[in-house]
Amino acid sequence: MLESNPPLLRHFEALLRHPAEIPALECDERQSGEFMEEIGQLPLIDLNGLKCHDVMERLACSTRICRASSEWGFFQVINHGISSELLRKMKREQVKLFQAPFEMKVSGGLLNNSYTWGTTTATSPNQFSWSEAFHIPLTEISEETYYGEYFSSLREVMKEFAAAMSKLARLLAEILSENLGSQKGELEDLCDESTCFLRLNRYPACQISPEVFGLVPHTDSDFLTILCQDQVGGLQLKKGSKWVAVKPIQDALLVNIGDLFQAWSNDVYKSVEHKVMVNRKTERYSIAYFLCPSYDSLIASFKEPSIYRKFTFGEYRKRVQEDVKKTGYKIGLQRFLL
Predict the structure, then answer these.
(1) Which residues span the domain enclosing 83?
(2) In the chain, how many domains are there?
(3) What is the pTM of this model?
(4) Do residues 289 and 261 touch, judged by C-beta distance below 8 A?
(5) Residue 36: its pLDDT value, please?
(6) Environment class of residue 331 by beta-carbon count within 10 Å: exposed (0-12), middle (13-18) or buried (19+)?
(7) 198 bridge partner residues
(8) Helices 55-71 and 152-179, axial angle in degrees (round to 10)
């Protein structure tokens, strides 16, 4: 049987043998003295409150969403409108996709050659992500030629899943933007399917050490992200000076604020650093939906005085990519402070 796992160990060991000498960044220094809380109870919000006939209950649910976005930058939602059956079907198709031979994933043209593994820009072990992923723009999900003869069933399931995640993301974004005083539909006009995408993730078991990153510490460069994860665990987020482990809840979805919403809200909402740690024995799967604007959309704080200078999404992405290539790390919003 052909090997399905990417050669993560070989790449990681090469980094251990030949670490590059690069300047230490501020983010390394900030992590000294930090410690982990074993279990973090994120705000858990029942979205049935948004459908309630009682106006006050609808308002209370919206308030909980906005408060969690300000205080945590993360929250979990239940009764979100995406059925347990669809979540299971998507997980089943995702597992089948990642079980394909490594050579097929790398060079078989699957999903428009969107497969990635490890971290090509890593110059030291602490910049390396022990994971593999497919990055799929929403506009390409319907393309039949991207799936090959073995994964045709993935196409229909992913179309349904992406549509449901998009609907939920836009609902939450509208609540958050209206809370800031923006006009109804203002954020909706900024977002563009051509830049929104799904990321299918797999984190293989790693017997080297539980301290290896499945995904290095980072913030998301979008408005908001919705994550569907399995029950394995491993996701951690920054709360003050602590790393907090997120305990998965069956069929709940995890929502987090991205950099663009933090800038747009003038730091009312927080884009929080998070990471994934590997598991020695068990692989982990997740699917993330990223709500993004068009590349020429101008990101400007909703009120003055603004903390950040104005920038386009395209400019922001370009600067992030340049920093990662040069230093191995994302610097992000710090680059755009006034």
Answers:
(1) 8-17+31-306
(2) 1
(3) 0.93
(4) no
(5) 57
(6) middle
(7) 136, 289
(8) 100
Distances (CA, A) of 64 to 72, 100, 172: 11, 42, 11
Q: Alpha-carbon distance 212 to 245, whole Å? A: 15
CB contact set of 86 (below 8 Å; sequence gap of 6+):
157, 160, 161, 164
Indicate whether 23 belongs to any domain: no
Does 181 have pLDDT greater than 60?
Answer: yes
**Residue 249 placed within a domain:** yes
Give the pLDDT confidence score for residue 211 in this predicted structure: 85
pLDDT in tens, 294-319: 999 999 998 889 999 999 999 999 99
Within a domain: residue 80? yes
Is-contact 260 180, C-beta < 8 A? no
Can you give the CATH number for the domain in which 300 is found?
Answer: 2.60.120.330
**Each residue of 259-286: pLDDT tens digit?**
999 999 999 999 999 999 999 999 999 9
Q: What's the token pair of residue 231?
A: 């029950």
Residue 120 burial (CB count, 10 A): 9
Q: Are 32 and 231 in contact (CB under 8 A)?
A: no
Q: 281, 254 in Cβ contact below 8 A?
A: no
Identify the band that residue 108 occupies on the pLDDT scale cut at 50, 70 and 90: confident
Token code pair at residue 216: 């290095």
For 167, phi and psi rounded to 5 degrees? -60, -45
Q: Which helix (H) or strand (E) holds 151?
A: none
User: Positive or negative, the Cα torsion across 152, 154, 157, 159?
Assistant: negative
Residues 6 or more apart in contact with residue 38 via CB below 8 angstroms = 245
Residue 57 within any structural domain of the chain: yes
- Return the number of other C-beta atoms located less than 10 Å from residue 34's C-beta: 11
Where b means 16+ CB within 10 Å and e means fewer, 70-102 reads bebbbbbbeebebeeeebebbbebbeebbebeb
Residue 165 CB-density burial (10 A; 0-12 exposed, 13-18 middle, 19+ buried)? buried
